[in-house]
Amino acid sequence: MGVTATETTLVEAGLRAEIRLLGQLLGETLREHEGLALYELEESIRLRTKALRQQYDSAKETELVAELGRIPLADAARLVRAFATYFQLVNLAELERQARSVIETGDETGELDRSVARCAEDGVPAARVAAILEQLEVRPVLTAHPTEAVRRSILDHQDRIGQELARLRAPLSARERDRVRQRIATQVEVLWHTDEVRSVRPRVLDEVGNALFYLERTFFDSIPDIHEELAEALVRSYPEVVPAVGPLIRLGSWVGSDQDGNPNANAAMLTQTLHLQRRTLLTLYRDRVRALARDLSQSTRLTSVSPQLTDSIQRDETDLDDYAATLNPGTREEPYRRKLSFIWRRLTAALDDERGAYRSADELAADLELIDTSLRGHGDRAIADGDLLRLRRQVRVFGFIGARLDVRQHRAVVRAAADEVFQRLGADAGHRRAATLSPPPISLVASRWSADTGNLLATLSAMAEAQRVAPGSAQTLIVSMTETAEDVLEALFLAGLAGLHQLDRDPPRSDLDIVPLFERLDALERAPATVDTLLSDPVYRRQLDGRAGIQEVMLGYSDSNKEVGYLCAAWALDRAHESIASVVARHGRTLRIFHGRGGTVGRGGGPTHEAIRAQPAGALDPKIKITEQGEVIHRRYARPETARQNLALVLGAMLEHTLMPAEARQANPAWREAMDIMAAESRHRYRALVYEDLGFQAYFEQATPIEEIAQLNTGSRPVSRGGTL
Fold this sequence. Notes:
The chain is 64% helix and 7% strand. It is an alpha/beta fold. It has a domain of 132 residues: Phosphoenolpyruvate/pyruvate domain (de novo design (two linked rop proteins), Up-down Bundle). It is globular.
């Protein structure tokens, strides 16, 4: 048996043992809290269905179905919960197995390392690699689409069980193993008594809490880890290339800011979400700084520090004199510990809005840079490359922001708001160009407008304030269902009313990306012409000058899939991406493409890294955003190990797509013709079934639990925006 097969067998054996343990603990909970009768019923059904799967017998199946039909409703509900909880635990064990397999592969090089090595093997020059790294931007964007029912409480309990399972794999004494088993049993018992299904629809704040779980649990460490992995890969394959200073991966989010179809998300929620993210980041930084202060105990009796660091400490002692008086006098001889104590105090002041607080993440980064420079200047490079470097990377990636929020709003709301404003001004849309360059003074108080217009204007005002406090925190407005360039130009006009741009200045200033979202087939087919019209507009050209020449365009997978079927939609999206990239390049601008993919195939789902490699050969701008929705977030990012693996795959795929010769990936013209034919035929067949067959909707509603799913309290927004399938 080969090594790989042996390792797989060992991992699978460990998985079976963990599932068996979790099943036993759940069984103990059932016997204790639900009675022996329910436990025996559950075991009987489990064993009989298992036997049917191994050797089918129609008579036994009929007998089992009849018996299930005789179970009283209350017992049936408890039985369903028992199996649902069991499968939760099985899925948890599987997630842990995936995380463990990433660690235990024994491979010294990871996916990102192999991607960089392939570029070197194919002769990609170092200068091109360095140039691309200066421009590269990868941004996974978390969304709160109601396709995932996992509550934060469930996630917390599962996380604790996973941590205890990990402890069981280490060498333990019999007593300690029993303690770990008891802690798992306690968590299983709590999980059994925690309602998996929400009794009320979650608030937007609940969804924000779920997003913060992933920020704290995985992204905060995983994204900086990937930057370190890339730096190590470059040393091996391109030693002359210095890693880019700026972060290549940032986190984005729609949670708390996606207003399209969700009346519960508004301007106040946007501000509150940013506030919660800021507090989370400040708390995380403060904890890491405290840990560093414990570790960096170097004494001036044994080493020296830079004069810049000494001067900085003296300024801190003056600015924070009350706090300085409380420090242990011994820290005067421990300058790194003393400086970190002042950093901790400034972070605390930022949390509590007190004197001496950091006004921006740049100030925190500058203080950490002082420590780093001093350490490296006095022979302590290994110390500087440890936890301090990780913290510096975290500050560069997340700032005081966390996830950068995108606001999404429907084109109809944008157009109606612009019409209402023009009517109030006594003007018409013909004056839009002048009003965009020189926005007229007008009240942005929501109560003075219709509900939708008031919320949109208040949201733009909140985005402007957020951008002043923390640039980049809320810099994107997505116009969903975009049909024409006018949809984007009217959004630009409204943004000017809130002070988000000054396009009459030289050079122009803009704090906002306005993103057309093309979703339906006809919009996708017109998208290149729409973008061309937009980029030809003289006012909009000034907007792009204020945004470093970057035009972001979003492609929607879900609506196009529902409209014309998977194959036709996928081909239309590919052609739109290719043509849009060509148009943007012709105008001398840079494209940031945003793929609005879901988790399921029907929503454009699939392995993200494969989708990136399959992008059009001519679409080479190295900036990409990709939505991460619902259950996909949990599957990919619930564990640090799987999060790092997924992020490495995505970054590596983006590097390969951008750096590899485009000629080698050009599609054969005959293949393109074949795709045109297949897409047209598949569209015809799909439309005939789903939209033209009068019996399909009734069949779909009877054959699937769609009505029951729609009643689940899975998200703060309605399940459907339009009431259709």
